[in-house]
Amino acid sequence: MTDDKLKGLRTKIDKLDRDILELISDRARCAQEVARVKQNEDAAAVFYRPEREAQVLRRVMDRNDGPLDDEEMARLFREIMSACLALEEPVRVAFLGPEGTFTQQAAMKHFGHSAVSVPMAAIDEVFREVTAGAVRYGVVPVENSTEGVISHTLDSFMDSSLKICGEVVLRIHQHLLVSENTRRDHITRIYSHAQSLAQCRKWLDAHWPMAERVAVSSNAEAAKRIKGEWNSAAIAGDMAADIYGLEKISEKIEDQPDNSTRFLIIGHQDVPSSGADKTSIVVSMRNQPGALHSILEVFHVHDVDLTRVETRPSRSGIWNYVFFIDFEGHTDDPVIQKVLEKLGSRVNDLRVLGSYPKGVL
Ligand SMILES: C=C(O[C@@H]1C=C(C(=O)O)C=C[C@H]1O)C(=O)O
């Protein structure tokens, strides 16, 4: 009886799989056709459309009634789109490396696994590689919910004319990792990126108060380094543990359970509105009383939601300040155009870093 039931269900699954296969192939052929149409219009056409991909994923999540949850379903579609796009040309993406960093994880989450990811040694190298055209996009971290802004990234924007084409938020889980050579009862040193050490500060104080904490250039670098040292452990994420073949001896050791990092996608593209967008700008002004207030007032008057304001010292004069401001809306919206016009008259300099779809996944 159960056997008959199972057999029936498996026949049904086999039939559904055949249908899914055919449908995905149809979809891939359609995407190829889109690419041909785009190329006929313009030989240098860019196939990847961030706003269109965001719309597809949002619609999938809206329509989904379970039993798979919205994020799981969107992830499947993310990979289908990534594979469809790679039929034309796999997207090449530079990221803050080496292999196994959270930034690489963010790149894969945003572009899917058919993208080709290229590791860079530093944030400004990611900017340089994209500027030079060796890759079309770059992924850099910009802020962490526990540790705040990544000032290197903001500073790189000051020297660059690249645009922000997207954002992606990643839940960050840190683990304590050892290699097969580590003598676990003799760990005297723990390597990680300074940000990660800070994200696990309380846990380290409680569990490894005597171990020396050594900051290195990335978590993946920390993971790589302990392979040759019998008295060291590393703090890094799942991807680094997998790539470097390390064992997790303590999992999810971050002090804040909702620890997450926001990454930006940088490129040359102006992205049209997806219907739910953010805009990032940088303004500079004299450091006079009421300076910040006069900027914020414009957003308040026009009822535009600010999502972040960061101050950085300007390098062009000691009395100038630079504000990085993120807000909801797109430069195509008339209200946003009005806001930008008003702001322009109140500051020394205003640059739009980009309007881009709000992170979906
Ligand atoms: C098919 C298109 O091109 C690409 C592929 C997409 C897809 O597979 O859905 C979506 C946007 C683009 O990245 C398109 O512009 O619609």
UniProtKB/TrEMBL annotation:
Pfam families: ACT, CM_2, PDT. Residues 1-92 form the Chorismate mutase domain. Its EC number is 4.2.1.51, 5.4.99.5. GO terms for biological process: chorismate metabolic process; L-phenylalanine biosynthetic process. Keywords: Amino-acid biosynthesis, Aromatic amino acid biosynthesis, Cytoplasm, Isomerase, Lyase, Multifunctional enzyme, Phenylalanine biosynthesis. GO terms for cellular component: cytoplasm. Gene3D superfamilies: 3.30.70.260, Chorismate mutase, Periplasmic binding protein-like II. GO terms for molecular function: chorismate mutase activity; prephenate dehydratase activity. It is found in: Cytoplasm. Residues 92-268 form the Prephenate dehydratase domain. Pathway: Metabolic intermediate biosynthesis; prephenate biosynthesis; prephenate from chorismate: step 1/1; Amino-acid biosynthesis; L-phenylalanine biosynthesis; phenylpyruvate from prephenate: step 1/1. It catalyses: chorismate = prephenate; prephenate + H(+) = 3-phenylpyruvate + CO2 + H2O. Its main location: cytoplasm. Residues 280-357 form the ACT domain. The record marks T261 as: Essential for prephenate dehydratase activity. InterPro entries: ACT-like_dom_sf (IPR045865), ACT_dom (IPR002912), Chor_mutase/pphenate_deHydtase (IPR008242), Chorismate_II_sf (IPR036263), CM_dom_sf (IPR036979), CM_II_prokaryot (IPR002701), G/b/e-P-prot_chorismate_mutase (IPR010957), Preph_deHydtase (IPR001086). PANTHER family: PREPHENATE DEHYDRATASE P PROTEIN, PREPHENATE DEHYDRATASE-RELATED. Catalyzes the Claisen rearrangement of chorismate to prephenate and the decarboxylation/dehydration of prephenate to phenylpyruvate. This is Bifunctional chorismate mutase/prephenate dehydratase. It comes from Endozoicomonas numazuensis.
